[in-house]
Task: inverse folding
């Protein structure tokens, strides 16, 4: 099989896939579930329940009328004991529905169907939205929105993203091995929705077993419009833009989206969730999460209910040393948590726990830049991280912008390779935010100016008339 | 909830970093220079050790002094001062008087590096700044070369004559003052000349004479990904290709003088070379072109030092050739 990759740039850190051979285990549901009303990129949901209400598993408890949104569902049955702001693993405080689990596991009524073929596209998109499906790779973008491109965009290919290039994480690997049919069916559903003629599942070379399982399943299902391709084991091979370049040799234009080059990229876990939503009528109430790192006593791949607090997971699996770092996500892009009182949300692909070794894994003390150009050579976007970092430190937004700071995908490669341990990614992220903020302010200023101008024009138009009238 | 001992550290992603550090890079450079340094002791005798030690110690003292004068944090741990000291020693005649080495090291570190803000901020290669100061201050000492002490049985020069007292000219010096034909006749055959240049049994600066030993170090640095192959390969390649246009033997032109030392260890100095991939290519071609021109038309037989220093000066310009950004297309590509 031919192996695809993107260039230039990328790194190959120690894979540390400690849990790749451990099958999914169902994690027991927590006594208290904390379900943030906004777990996706987009508009927040409004609560549909009140304190004191009894909710069933799968019951919709939050929704929004905004287009870019996805509803959330109760993940345990029991009484709503509070609706209040709670710290989310994204770092934001989000209004959350707190449910006390009665352990009856009472579900809403589900109506499974045999096939999706006879359903129209619009209906499928609606099902996906109603079941709260978002991208499970980490970005948590509402899937229904991704699948409804503007009329003038033609989608020709769906890429199933099975690269899973982040070290430690193995959920996608397990999803492909254990649920190949659901992953493939998910691609077929997306092809039906978008009219794409081709489905490609891209798997990193280090997951050859998963690629073989998928390939055999495709044969068994008698499909000739879906294929499996191998991509080189390299970080960030699973970055949407890098994957599109590797597999199709297309480049998503700066500031654009994959659909601008006729592609939808979907994480394999999301594809599985889509199949479950469409065929089993099952809302997104749980997800596969890799729990790993040196500090956890029982690492593994677990199916965990959304809203399960990290503290409950730690209680259940145990620690073998003092916990010094708790990361939601992978080690390259994940977010270090200040507390264990944060819940698993839809975008949580992994939870990593480390002891004191975490401090050596990522030394924080910076030394002067020696201009070695490692960051330039390894940037998968062709940027000059060192120069954007300089601009960021000087708060020189203009220079950062001309250096294409906004094209940065925040993969962390520049900070990883830097021998001087400089906080490149961190500084580039902050200058990006500053640029976006400035743009918003300028747009508002411009709008205010236009309004004032229009007003003045009107006054001018009116005043001569008045004179005439007078 | 069980009572776990929890004391969480919050840092920004990534949470893992490569093991390479500034000092591990410098350590690799020292390892790469080692063959040529050890070779110099065999070729020019124990004098070499003296020059090397004085140069390194002076460089370290200069770095400490610089840190004090410019209120900088201690920086000896990054090993860059030691590397500069070793590199300076390699560019000096083995017969250099000790005080001249001291002046060279202090000039290189203070004028070449510390006044610009220390490591990473120097626009010029510190070792070459030090050497150029000596070159204009004591040109006689800087162009007095001793004959290689031992023969290793490969070259027919330097019969069993007493060392130190016998001076010689460098191969490039003979070409400049006399002719290439004379040089070949000195060595008997062209093959003998190549052999001597390859193993380093010719007159010259302490660490520049053996192409083989420098090549070993250079390949090590490329394999360890400390340096980009582009600068040395294109620099040497440019000299190889351009030399015949001036009637010079291409193989002799790349083996003689300080080209290998300059190409692998001087032109690749991070701080004073470009950081963009294409910038490196243009920079290497530029200094290769200058080297050939200086060798041919100036009164100096060798042009590596001045070429690299001139190239250093133009680095900000070469760095304007930025890499292609993903998703940003040139007008040509858009037209397609």
Result:
């Amino acid at each position: 099989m031919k192996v695809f990759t993107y260039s230039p740039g990328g790194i190959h850190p120690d894979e540390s896939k400690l849990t790749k051979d451990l099958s999914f285990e169902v994690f027991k549901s927590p006594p208290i579930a904390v379900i943030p009303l906004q777990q996706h990129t987009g508009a927040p949901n409004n609560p549909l329940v009140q304190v004191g209400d009894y909710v069933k598993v799968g019951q919709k408890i939050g929704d929004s009328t905004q287009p870019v949104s996805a509803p959330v569902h109760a993940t345990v049955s029991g009484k709503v004991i509070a609706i209040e702001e709670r710290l989310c693993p994204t770092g934001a405080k989000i209004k959350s529905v707190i449910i006390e689990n009665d352990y009856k596991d009472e579900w809403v009524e589900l109506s499974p169907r045999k096939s999706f073929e006879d359903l129209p596209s619009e209906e499928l998109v609606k099902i996906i939205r109603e079941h709260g499906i978002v991208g499970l790779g980490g970005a948590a973008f509402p899937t229904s929105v991704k699948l409804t491109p503007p009329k003038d965009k033609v989608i020709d290919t769906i890429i199933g993203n099975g690269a899973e290039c982040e070290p430690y994480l193995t959920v996608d690997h397990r999803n492909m091995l254990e649920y190949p049919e659901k992953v493939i069916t998910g691609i077929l559903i997306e092809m039906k929705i978008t009219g794409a003629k081709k489905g490609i599942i891209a798997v990193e070379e280090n997951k050859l077993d998963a690629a073989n399982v998928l390939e055999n399943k495709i044969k068994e299902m008698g499909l000739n419009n879906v294929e499996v391709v191998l991509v080189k084991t390299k970080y960030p091979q699973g970055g949407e833009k890098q994957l599109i370049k590797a597999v199709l040799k297309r480049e998503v234009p700066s500031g654009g989206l994959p659909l601008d080059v006729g592609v939808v990229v979907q994480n394999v876990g999301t594809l599985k969730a889509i199949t479950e939503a469409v065929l089993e009528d099952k809302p997104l109430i749980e997800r596969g999460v890799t729990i790993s790192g040196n500090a956890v006593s029982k690492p593994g791949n677990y199916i965990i209910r959304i809203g399960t607090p990290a503290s409950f997971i730690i209680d259940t699996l145990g620690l073998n040393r003092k916990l010094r770092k708790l990361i939601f996500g992978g080690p390259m892009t994940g977010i270090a948590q200040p507390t264990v009182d944060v819940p698993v949300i839809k975008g949580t692909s992994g939870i990593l726990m480390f002891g004191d070794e975490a401090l050596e894994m990522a030394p924080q003390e910076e030394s002067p830049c020696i201009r070695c150009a490692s960051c330039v050579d390894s940037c998968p976007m062709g940027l000059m991280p060192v120069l954007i970092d300089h601009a960021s430190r000087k708060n020189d937004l203009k220079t950062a912008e001309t250096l294409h700071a906004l094209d940065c995908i925040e993969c962390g490669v520049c900070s990883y390779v830097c021998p001087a341990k400089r906080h490149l990614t961190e500084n580039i992220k902050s200058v990006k935010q500053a640029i976006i903020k400035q743009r918003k302010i300028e747009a508002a200023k411009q709008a205010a100016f236009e309004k004032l101008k229009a007003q003045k024009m009107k006054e001018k138009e009116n005043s001569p008339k008045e004179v005439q009238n007078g | 909830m069980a009572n776990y001992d929890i004391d969480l550290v919050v840092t920004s992603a990534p949470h893992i970093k490569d093991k390479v550090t500034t000092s591990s890079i410098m350590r690799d450079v020292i390892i790469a220079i080692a063959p040529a340094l050890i070779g110099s002791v065999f070729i020019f005798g124990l004098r070499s050790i003296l020059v090397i030690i004085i140069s390194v110690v002076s460089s370290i003292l200069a770095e400490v002094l610089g840190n004090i004068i410019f209120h900088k944090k201690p920086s000896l741990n990054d090993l860059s001062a030691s590397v500069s000291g070793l590199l300076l020693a390699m560019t000096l005649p083995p017969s250099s008087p000790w005080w001249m080495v001291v002046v060279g090291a202090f000039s290189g570190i203070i004028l070449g590096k510390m006044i610009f803000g220390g490591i990473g901020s120097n626009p010029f290669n510190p070792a070459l700044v030090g050497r150029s100061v000596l070159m204009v201050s004591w040109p006689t000492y800087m162009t007095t070369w001793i004959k290689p002490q031992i023969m290793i049985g490969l070259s027919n020069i330097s019969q069993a004559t007493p060392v130190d007292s016998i001076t010689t000219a460098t191969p490039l010096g003979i070409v400049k003052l006399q002719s290439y034909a004379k040089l070949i006749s000195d060595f008997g055959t062209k093959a003998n000349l190549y052999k001597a240049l390859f193993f380093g049994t010719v007159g010259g600066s302490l660490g520049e004479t053996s192409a083989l030993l420098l090549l070993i170090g250079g390949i090590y640095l490329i394999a360890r990904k400390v340096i980009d192959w582009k600068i040395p390969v294109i620099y040497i390649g440019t000299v190889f290709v351009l030399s015949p246009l001036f009637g010079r033997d291409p193989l002799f032109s790349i083996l003689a003088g300080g080209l290998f030392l300059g190409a692998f260890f001087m032109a690749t100095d991070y701080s004073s070379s470009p950081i963009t991939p294409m910038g490196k290519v243009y920079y290497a071609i530029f200094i290769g072109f200058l080297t050939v021109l200086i060798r041919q038309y100036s009164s100096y037989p060798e042009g590596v030092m001045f070429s690299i220093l001139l190239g250093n000066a133009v680095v900000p310009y070469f760095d304007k050739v930025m890499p292609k950004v993903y998703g940003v297309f040139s007008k040509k590509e858009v037209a397609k």
